[in-house]
Specification:
Helix content is 64%, strand content 9%. It is α/β, with parallel strands linked by helices. The chain folds into 3 domains: 118 residues, Glutaredoxin (3-Layer(aba) Sandwich), CATH 3.40.30.10; 68 residues, Alpha Horseshoe (Serine Threonine Protein Phosphatase 5, Tetratricopeptide repeat); 87 residues, Alpha Horseshoe (Serine Threonine Protein Phosphatase 5, Tetratricopeptide repeat). It has a 5-stranded mixed beta sheet with strand order 1-3-2-4-5, sandwiched between helices. Helix 4 links the parallel strand 2 and strand 3. Helix 7 runs parallel beside helix 9, helix 8 runs antiparallel to helix 9 and helix 12 packs antiparallel against helix 13. The longest helix has 19 residues. It is elongated and about 90 Å long. The N and C termini lie far apart (54 Å). Belongs to the thioredoxin family. This is Thioredoxin. InterPro entries: Thioredoxin (IPR005746), Thioredoxin-like_sf (IPR036249), Thioredoxin_CS (IPR017937), Thioredoxin_domain (IPR013766), TPR-like_helical_dom_sf (IPR011990), TPR_rpt (IPR019734). Pfam families: Thioredoxin (PF00085), TPR_19 (PF14559), TPR_20 (PF14561).
Length: 306
C-alpha cells in the first residue's frame, strides 16, 4: 500500500522549484501533463513579488502535490518573459496539459490565492481521476463496510502517515476503533486531534458515534431493569432515555429513536429537552442521508409542529 499511496506523487522538492528558459518545457509544459503547474514570474527588486511568493508557495505546499509551482526570475530570463508577454510583475500563469488555463497579475490576498490553487487542484483531479490517497481511502471504507475492521484500520492509518490531516481517514479510523469496541483507543485518538478537524462533518459524525457508544456502555448492563421500569411506568422518562442510549450503542437504532420520540411526544421539555438533543446527536452520528435519520427527522418535526 505504500507503493499505492506514493505512486505518481511528486517529491517534496519538485512541488516548488526555480526554473529558467532552458528547463521551461520540462518543468512546466511536460510536467503539466500530470498536474497543473503554476508559473510565477518575479524579480528580486519587486516588492509585490516578495509579498506574493511566500503566500503562493504555502498554498501550493498545502495542496500536497495536486499542484506544482515553478518560479522564473524575469531578469535572468528576459526572452522567456517576452515570449509569455509578461509586461508587469508579479505575473502568474497556470498550465495544465500543456496549455495556459488561468492566471493573474499583481499581488493577491491569501484567501484568493488559496481559491486559485484549490480551483487548479480540482481541474487536475477531475481530469486525472482520484489520487492514490483517495483510492486508498475508498479501499479502507470498502473494507470497513465489509466488516474487515483490521484491514480498514491498517489502511486508514497508512493514509494518515502520508496525509495527517485527511478528514475521511481520521473519521474512518475512529469508526474502526468503535466497530472493534476499543473505546479507550478511540478516546485517546480523539483527544490528540486538533480542534479545527473536529468541525469536519465526517469527523464530527464519528465523534458523535463515540460519545453515544461511551454513554451506551454505561447503561448496557441495565437493559432488563430499564425495560421493567418502563413496563411499570411508561412515563419513566429517565429509564427510556437510558434505554435509548444502550440500544443505540448496541445497534438497535430504530428502537432507540422510538423511545426518544415517545419522550418528546409526551413531554418535549423534559430535562431541558434532553430527548430532542439526544435525537439530534443520533442523527449526526448516523449521517444526514441514513434512512433512519431522514424518517426520524420527519417524525420529530411532525411532533414538534403538530
Amino acid at each position: 500500500m505504500d507503493q499505492l499511496i506514493g505512486s505518481g506523487k511528486p517529491a517534496a522538492g519538485d512541488v516548488v522549484k526555480d526554473s529558467d528558459t532552458a528547463r521551461f518545457k520540462t518543468d512546466v509544459i511536460d510536467a503539466s501533463m500530470q498536474v497543473p503547474v503554476i508559473v510565477d514570474f518575479w524579480a528580486p527588486w519587486c516588492g509585490p513579488c516578495k509579498q506574493l511568493g511566500p503566500v503562493i508557495e504555502k498554498a501550493v505546499q498545502e495542496a500536497k502535490g495536486a499542484v506544482r509551482l515553478v518560479k522564473i526570475n524575469v531578469d535572468e530570463n528576459q526572452e522567456l518573459a517576452a515570449q509569455m508577454r509578461v509586461q508587469s510583475i508579479p505575473a502568474v500563469y497556470a498550465f495544465f496539459q500543456g496549455r495556459p488555463v488561468d492566471g493573474f497579475v499583481g499581488a493577491q490576498p491569501e484567501s484568493q490565492l488559496k481559491q486559485f490553487v484549490a480551483r487548479l487542484a480540482k481541474i487536475g483531479g477531475d481530469a486525472l481521476g482520484p489520487s492514490p490517497v483517495d483510492e486508498a481511502v475508498e479501499q479502507a471504507e470498502a473494507a470497513l463496510a465489509a466488516g474487515d475492521h483490521g484491514a480498514a484500520s491498517a489502511i486508514f492509518s497508512e493514509v494518515l502517515e502520508h496525509d495527517p490531516g485527511n478528514a475521511k481517514a481520521i473519521a474512518g479510523l475512529l469508526r474502526c476503533l468503535l466497530a472493534m469496541n476499543d473505546l479507550a483507543a478511540a478516546k485517546e485518538f480523539l483527544e490528540g486531534l486538533e480542534p479545527e478537524i473536529l468541525k469536519d462533518p465526517a469527523v464530527a459524525s464519528a465523534k458523535a458515534q463515540f460519545e453515544l457508544a461511551e454513554q451506551g456502555q454505561k447503561s448496557a448492563g441495565k437493559l432488563p431493569e430499564l425495560q421493567a421500569r418502563i413496563a411499570a411506568n411508561p412515563k419513566d422518562f429517565q429509564a427510556r432515555y437510558e434505554l435509548a442510549e444502550a440500544q443505540f450503542a448496541a445497534g438497535q437504532k430504530e428502537e432507540a429513536i422510538d423511545h426518544l420520540l415517545e419522550i418528546v411526544r409526551i413531554d418535549r421539555a423534559w430535562n431541558d429537552q434532553a430527548a430532542r438533543l439526544q435525537l439530534v446527536k443520533f442523527f449526526e452520528a448516523m449521517g444526514p442521508t441514513d434512512p433512519l435519520t431522514l424518517s426520524g427527522r420527519r417524525r420529530l418535526s411532525s411532533i414538534l409542529f403538530s
